[in-house]
Write a structure and sequence with these properties.
The protein is an alpha+beta fold and 44 residues long. It has a domain of 25 residues. It has two helices and two strands. Strands 1-2 form a two-stranded antiparallel ribbon. A hairpin with a 4-residue loop joins strand 1 and strand 2.
Length: 44
């Protein structure tokens, strides 16, 4: 675990705000959950 850098508050906010995971069709950034998945994307 070398070369780790401490994240700034701005970077942490981006992570905590949440970005939709790959294959997620309906992302809720407040609850950080995906309601609908693209199953064709998950199982190519």
């Amino acid at each position: 675990m070398k070369n780790l850098k401490k994240l700034s508050k701005k970077d942490l906010r981006k992570i905590q705000g949440g970005q939709a995971p790959a294959c997620c069709l309906s992302w809720n950034p407040i609850l950080r959950e995906c309601r609908r998945w693209d199953y064709n994307c998950l199982n190519p």
